[in-house]
Design brief:
The structure is a homodimer of 272-residue chains. With 272 residues, chain A is of the alpha/beta class. Chain A is built from ten helices and eight strands.
Chain lengths: 272, 272
């Protein structure tokens, strides 16, 4: 059992604010929360019974784990500031190789939750897949125990696997959310409650878990209904950006379905 | 009460195979199911206790409603073949104007369910928003009764509103599903179970119903993490199509967030 082991949490953003409290409930002891602004570190530290810090100078040297929950671009800076040599460092990034640690310390690893976290949206981590990787089997075992304490789905995965998972996450989460956002913007302009689209959004997501997305495609684009697509492209004339996305994603669907995309080239918006 | 009123169903596709049985359970009586192939019309007709038909010559003249559930591009052909003059015609399309009926008959309208339907995926229509429109208040009342018999969300909506809703549906369903499909393809190639992405897909959809998609955006693109985006674009080198979509949708997110997209122009794939 690793319950009772101590963690210094670096970062107080979307992920830290979900992972911290979940690990705390599992019995891990948070000693410090490090964040650039005192407000955010204090807010999270209070929830975890930890001490808030804004600089790396006061960080304790003897915590069991240093859990890095910062943006990918900040990880190396954090590691350099941590005086890492004898510490056990863990990052939580999809696209950062585990070897980012290798020239700094001997005990390190990765704990990557494949999920989208927003501070103002609750989340049960039990169903979130965690991908783990570490510098040695002993360290992997420690990280697996951390992951298993909050999630039922823990898998070992290389840095390369994680990078592919992260690209897939960008498509299925960030890009999907951008499609929602475009629809939300159209609804706002036309004074249509965006709520009407929720059942469709939810069903599309649920369906992806039941039947393959390759089989689930419906609507005028998958039927190659050019008249409807032309109507839609015309309707988006005040939004060249939305038009461009419509044209490109529609072309992608048509090509995957073996249809010609030639008629789309004649549509306005293609070369705007 | 309109229960017991008779319906001729034209079409036996995804929508007809969900709407027919639901209306049947609500007490509407289906007399005929018309479809181009005898197999599909027979299959659905049996479920509805109706007679299957493959041509328009045998269609009864005295049903209360003629419910048209065919592709948009087929609607006008269907109307011409229906000998429509004294019939009450209803179509179910998002992007087809109600006036498609106006030169053919006097009693007509639209019953548009804003949802994605697949034959092999069950669906409770109670939570599906239905948008109704008709040639007169009396006909609208009849169509509202049909909609209310299966759904709790029935709204009057013009043909223009429906067209905008349909464009939004293409973005939030068809285009979203295409993002899933691209991820599924990457997973397949890398032998990663697509199932790992289900919790993320579902949470992204659920979140859109709780907080605005404009606020819900997470990930490297919304953080403008150019290093990660470059890694991802590099990773997609064997898939110029996926790269193109990545670049365009990422640019759309960056622009909406007020970031420059200049670095994307220097990436491979932009002009492939």
């Amino acid at each position: 059992m690793d319950k009772g082991k101590s963690i210094v949490l670096i970062g107080a953003g979307n992920l830290a604010s979900h992972l911290g409290p979940a690990l705390c409930r599992s019995g891990y002891k948070f000693v410090q929360v490090v964040s650039r602004t005192i407000e955010t570190s204090t807010l999270l530290a209070q929830k975890l019974g930890a001490i808030p810090e804004t600089s790396f100078t006061n960080i304790t040297a003897d915590a069991d784990f240093y859990l890095i929950c910062v943006s990918d671009s900040q990880i190396e800076m954090v590691v350099r500031n941590l005086n890492p040599q004898n510490k056990f460092l863990i990052h939580t990034s999809g696209s950062t190789d585990m070897n980012i640690f290798s020239s700094f310390c001997k005990r390190y690893g990765v704990l990557y939750p494949l999920q989208t976290f927003s501070k103002n949206k609750e989340m049960d981590l039990a169903g979130v897949p965690f991908f783990t990787e570490a510098s040695s089997p002993k360290e992997l075992d420690s990280i697996d125990r951390i992951a298993n304490s909050v999630s039922e789905i823990v898998q070992h995965g290389s840095s390369e696997l994680r990078l592919y998972l992260h690209v897939c996450a960008v498509f299925t989460c960030s890009f999907t959310n951008q499609m929602y956002r475009i629809a939300e913007e159209i609804c706002r302009e036309k004074e249509i409650p965006f709520e009407y689209l929720h059942p469709l959004i939810l069903e599309t997501a649920v369906k992806a878990g039941r039947i393959s997305p390759a089989m689930a495609q419906t609507g005028p684009v998958s039927r190659n209904d050019q008249l409807i697509m032309k109507k839609h492209i015309h309707l988006l004339e005040d939004h060249p950006e939305f038009r461009k996305i419509y044209t490109f994603v529609a072309a992608s669907i048509l090509k995957m379905n073996g249809h010609s995309t030639e008629f789309l080239n004649a549509q306005p918006g293609k070369d705007e």
